[in-house]
Write a structure and sequence with these properties.
Chain lengths: 240, 240
DNA sequence: CGTACGGTTGATACATATCAATATGCGTGG
DNA sequence: CCACGCATATTGATATGTATCAACCGTACG
């Protein structure tokens, strides 16, 4: 559960809910997808729900960082590009995750919808104004950054020192832990290319590694996007 | 210049300086190495100066994160280890840099002295207490985390998608920018092994890449630790 | 002067990338 | 409902960048 989402749903922040479709939609959507019962109308009060279609750009690298975003449904990829088109996906954002949160006035990444997704867009200035006289919110925003840092640092180890097998294993375990669906099973929202660009590999290597894990009976692949973790121990072993 | 160092030297934080050798040493040391003229006695009031010898451990991975550290002189490496000994250096800390700053109660890295170095050790609890009723300090601490995140994210792109040459070029440019010595020249405080573990390469590849850059007249290597950037344009070209 | 450590250079191996072909799934339109 | 076409995924053959193994060099230091 994202700390900022928690902060935004504290009693202190509850405002009279906006009437109308938008507010209602946010509230229901959030409850539907996370099962939390906390009031979330505040999100509607602070931001606007927007829908993005598959592969559409949410913001561009170097664009003014006027908003931060909270994922309600779907998945978002946050990435950097090199001049010649090489791409590194820094992170995937799932429901409850926040992205686009910067200290700098401009985004240092682009963000794109992995699949059809809904996000809440909150004005940076509004959050900042609130954080200025609310230590708890400020702390939540800091914790948000710290959490992102922690994940990024873990990923550094993955990209710097792990083999393809280990990378894929780490990725699968991570996705399984984050998407709270059926235990031992994940439905990947992203393509092989996205996975490759996240793990610093090629699409072919990702594919081969997955089939290798399947041959070794560590996972099963009922379909290309669905992964059954048959031998979690083996996966964790690869995770070092 | 580290934001936290700045925050700690704001007028609001200036206390009557402690008398005695320690306080004096901090103040002079900091001024010597950074050239800043801002009062820094507050650091002595908050922390203790400690010296670490080459390769000694400052704190271990998973140790209680009771302190944060500010580098006064020398260099520190912050790293993670894999079970079989593979090592990833997350970052090098130079004078003015802060390390060991965590949200979690335990360090997620180890920190070691790259060479003889002096650091100020500040109790976490003291900083936290101060930050609780000081929005400006709290903001500085957040900015610190955000800056670290930004650097880590850039490094992710390096490890995920850049070639050995590009990694080394990026590293040299970064070190040159950070160590404010003679323009176009860097003295590297760390060994080839350290560089390799930072860039996700082997010691041999780092060495070969450097000699290759030297053959191409992009750099000169008067000694193994001294690097002259002869063709910054070429290096920046490799930086994409 | 010799030893040790860090660095360089060379020969070879190997993991992953690249190039290429084939297969699978999926939406669209007949 | 099926047929088509496109996008995505898999598989195969080969290339290549970097790792590994090994020898050698140079500098610092006792």
């Amino acid at each position: 559960m994202s700390t900022i989402a928690a902060a935004l749903t504290q009693k202190a922040y509850v405002q009279p809910p906006l009437s109308g479709a938008v507010a209602g939609r946010v509230s229901r959507a959030w409850q539907d997808e996370t099962g939390t019962r906390q009031p979330t109308d505040i999100l509607a009060g602070l931001g606007v729900v927007t829908t993005f279609s598959r592969n559409s750009e949410i913001f561009a690298e170097d664009a003014p960082a006027d908003h931060i975003f909270l994922v309600l449904s779907g998945a978002v990829r946050v990435c950097k590009l090199l001049g010649d088109g090489r791409r590194q996906i820094e992170t995937f954002c799932l429901p409850g995750d926040v992205f686009g949160w910067e200290t700098a006035p401009r985004h240092r990444f682009s963000a794109e919808a992995v699949n059809e997704c809904r996000v809440v867009r909150v004005k940076r200035s509004i959050l900042f104004a609130r954080a200025a006289d609310d230590a708890e919110l400020a702390h939540a925003l800091w914790a948000l950054t710290a959490g992102e840092l922690s994940r990024t640092q873990n990923h550094l180890l993955v990209l710097g020192r792990k083999t393809a097998q280990e990378r894929v294993a780490t990725f699968l375990l991570d996705m399984a832990a984050r998407s709270a669906g059926t235990a031992g099973e994940v439905t990947l929202p992203m393509s092989r290319q996205d996975i490759a660009d996240y793990l610093g590999l090629t699409i072919e290597t990702v594919s081969r590694t997955l089939t290798h894990l399947e041959d070794a009976a560590v996972i099963a692949l009922p379909s290309s996007r669905r992964v059954v973790l048959k031998d979690g121990g083996a996966l964790r072993g690869l995770n070092s």
